[in-house]
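Question (not urgent): is this output format expected?
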Amino acid sequence: MKKIFYLTLILIVSSIYAVDLSADTVISEDLAKLMAQVPPAENFPNANYYVITESTIVTLSPDGSYNREIYFLAKLYNFAGKRELSNYKINFNADFQKVELIRARTINSNAVIPVNEKSVNDISHPNYSDAAMYGDFQQKVISLPAVSESSVVEIHAIVKTDTNTSMPFGKLVVLVDEPPTRKRFYEVKFSKGVELTWKSISGAPKSRKNATSLIWEITDYKGENIENNTPSLREVFPTILYSLSKTWMDESAKISKITEPKIVVNEKIKSATEKIVGDKKGKEAISAILFYIQQNFTQIDTRPEYFGYEPYTAPKILENGSGDSKDLSVLLAAMLRAIGIDASLALVTSYGARIYDIPMSYQMNEFLVIVWLDGKKYFLYPSQRYADVGFLGRASGEKSLIIDPEKGELIQTDLLKASDGNATYNFDINITPDGKASGTVTLECSGIPAMYMRAKFRDQKKRKVKQLFQEAASNISSGANLVPDTLLRGIETNTGPVNAKLGFTIDNYMMFQGEMALLWFPDAPFMLLSYPAITEQSRDFPLYNTLPQKVIFKYKINFPMGYELVYAPPEQKIDNQFGNVIIYGNNIDNTIEYTVEFELEKCRVSPEKYKDYKELIKTFMKKGNRIVLFKKIV
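Got this back:
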């Protein structure tokens, strides 16, 4: 089988200079044999297509440029597979890359149909339409002809990267993910004397190494059916990493050579900083500068591993009034240095992916700033509009690379705990004998819940704020109406708590059936709590909860005379490594006072521990822990 694969590859490479795509209508005997050996679709009920061969060969030249040759051969199983592969896309940055298409064709049982050159188009990448100022990131879209639900599609192309790039050589590659695959081949070629560092993770095979290449190969991969809230693909699917850097200091130094000259502190930067800071000192000055950039600059979403690591200069960013994470971080660092505060850039992952111990910046996707003040370090996130000083969000508890010519290193960040911020709701409700209710709910929140509230309200017009409060009242209970008297404080800055208050009425809050009556504890007016779905009975993959959270509901309900309490939720406590649920309360005369606390930590839940995690969530959501029953006193 290995011989067949290499013969096929040699035949393909031999057509490297064939530019007339329409002339390629021959199927070799070896290729026909490979296609004939594809297992039937019923062998893989969750698969949309079967990868017969996927090959990548990366060749690093002595001048620093490199080519990435890709070959893809797949058999479609259904309409979803047709939809995925009939328009095959190759991503590239046209500023320093170009794509040479060697072969693209559809193979059906009765015909071979090469792609027409008019059906190959370069388009601006739809995910980066607002980032043209950073690079010409494009997709080569290959619209394959006559694709049916049982076709074989074949693509062969070379992506050429020149030396005019601000990206260190290296790559993070998820070798296989969901589709079943007969053979996955990946090779890195380099000149004699060049030394690469590399790592295989998440079940990837060890590399076969010789003097001038590294080779990874996977055969007969059965495929997987991905589950909700799974961590980043690198953590669950076979993945390889390789880099020219020997240490994290090396990698930091390479990027620092690109970014450090852009942290320009001139009179323009000094003057702007002095106006922002005034007479503030220390942490207050840091907070003022951070908030100024967060609020006054349009934030553009890019990833440096696609666009490169070269920002504009700080004065130019100030003039532009916009920037991505690297630009806003450069401006922030320059302003901090302008008032004598030690500041450096740093790299993190904004989606919480683990950083593995191989020196490669491609593991991170966002810049921020780290400062040292009075012996303490603070992370500053200028591209997170509502983040306070020190907030790291999904990157908390993970690792960060400091980009600095002298302090460059990989450091462990502080883990953000649920107790570092919470939302506390206080309900005070009065019920009349006919079942109507009136009351108030107050909210005090800090940390991540406070960020959610600022994001919801800060930039809204008064009319929209009123509408949001009306929606909040309707979230409390079915049929609830807003009482005009509302309060909202603490959204103007990113520091301190946020407070809110609203009044409400409910026409049919207490429901009657004969001598019995019931009510439900009210729901939260503002949705500040989220957690991964627990729909699966069991899991094959880990589950990832991205942010810690804590919410407390305190209920005080005055019910009418003539009724006695029959049932209220029993006192409970579940406490495990993922968080806790605590329910407790009492009733005195005609008043129920109950408290429900729910705390969920940022966590990766192994399949073996999924049952414990699920039990925690189910206890909090359980209907029996929200209902109260009464009986009329005769």
